[in-house]
Amino acid sequence: MAKKKSKNKEAKEEKPRKVVKAVFMRERVVTEDSADAKELYDQSRYGSIIDSGKVQLSLLEAMYLLEKGRLEILDGRGKPIDPDKFLKKAKRLEPKFWIRYCVFKNMRNRGYIIKTALKFGADFRVYDRGVKPGEDHARWIVYPVHETEVLTWHEFSAKNRVAHSTKKRLLIGVVDEESDVTYYEVSWKRP
Fold it and tell me: Is 64 a catalytic residue?
């Protein structure tokens, strides 16, 4: 005799999320103009809305959504790009892509919204869990580095000064050979 599913189990099952189609364009990925694409932006602040109603994603956001099965990226001829091929393209465009992606992915998997921080002179700005850009300010700026990378005291001080002057906390995301990330939070202390 076949077992019946309980009503509670059925209620907990989520409807499958739709895969959003997007096109790889130079250094960005642009989604189709759809409700599902706008939902990615509205719920989790992936990308930014552009004038046509489409969502423009960074290479990091596109890679993350591609790995999660939420995005299908097409080339200029309309053929799908698999994650390995997309990763190779991204690494050619951005030499530190993998190190930056490890930190991006780690933060997103922990439930944080992470956006670019170029205007602050940093790699990323990170918002507290539950806070969306525009609702409040970012809490941290993050610099991803490989564990073998060397920072001089001058470089380290400059990064700390940027964080302090933007009223954010500094996180150094150290990526090891296994692509695991360890964070070090740095702050100014007055004696």
Answer: no
Given 18, 85, 88, 137, the catalytic residue: 137
Please give the Cα distance from 67 to 61 (Å, whole number): 10
Reply yes or no on whether 7 is catalytic: no
Active-site option among 168, 183, 184, 189: 168
Task: Quote the pTM value.
Answer: 0.86
Domains of the chain in sequence order: 17-93 (3.40.1170.20), 97-186 (3.40.1350.10)
Instruction: Answer whether 142's CB lies under 8 Å from 114's CB.
Output: yes
Residues 144, 162: Cα–Cα separation, whole Å? 15
Q: For residue 154, indicate whether it is catalytic.
A: no
What does the H/E/C string look like for 13-78? CCCCCCCEEEEEECCEEEECCCHHHHHHHHHHCCCEECCCCCEEECHHHHHHHHHCCCEEEECCCC
| Predicted pLDDT of residue 15 | 55
Asked whether the predicted pLDDT for residue 57 surpasses 90, the reply is yes
Considering the candidates 89, 127, 143, 159, report the single residue annotated as catalytic. Answer: 127
